[in-house]
Amino acid sequence: MMNRLRISLVLVGLVIVFVSVAYVYTLWAAERQRAADLPVEATSMMIRDLLAFHKRRGSFPSDLKQLESVMWEQNKGREFSNGDRGFTHLNYFYLYTRLEHHRYSLWAVPLGQARDEVPTMFVIGSPEVYRRWKGAALSLKSVSGIKANPTEIELGVLGLVEQPKVVTGSRTK
Description:
By secondary structure, the chain is of the alpha+beta class. It has helices spanning 2-37, 43-57, 64-70, 140-143, 152-157, and strands at 80-81, 86-89, 92-100, 103-110, 120-125, 129-135, 160-162, 166-167. Strands 1, 2, 3, 4, 5, 6, 7 and 8 form an 8-stranded antiparallel beta sheet that branches. A hairpin with a 2-residue loop joins strand 3 (92-100) and strand 4.
C-alpha cells in the first residue's frame, strides 16, 4: 500500500512539473508569435540609405530597385510593387516616390494583425532636411487612396500629425 502511495505521489509530482513546463512554453511561444506579428518601422534606415544614395549619385533614386542596386545587399528576395516603388519589410509597407531629383516622399504603413499598435509614418525629404508626419494606422480603405505628395490638410484628414523637422545637412550656396 505504501509503495502504491509513493508511486502515486511521484507520478503526481511529475505531472505537475510537466503541466508547468507546458504552460510556460505556451506562454513563451505566444509571446514570440505576438512579437513576430508586431510591425517594425524602419523609416530612419530608409532615409539614411536615400541620403547616402543622393550623396553618391547627386539625386534620389527613381525607384527602389535603383536604390537596391547601389545601397542594399542584392539577392535578398525583395519583391517590389507599384512600379518598383513599394515593398513590404517586417510587417510595414513602404511606398517611395521621387518627387524631384532632390526631393522624395516615403510612406510607411503598418500591416498585419497587430497593425493598430504601431503608427503610420509619412516623410517628405531633401538632402538638407526632412519633415515627418505620424499618426494611427490607416484603414485599408485609406491606404489604397494615399497620394505621393499629399497636402498638409490631406495628411490631417488621415489623422497624421507633423513632427519636428530634422536637419540632415548644411545648405551651402
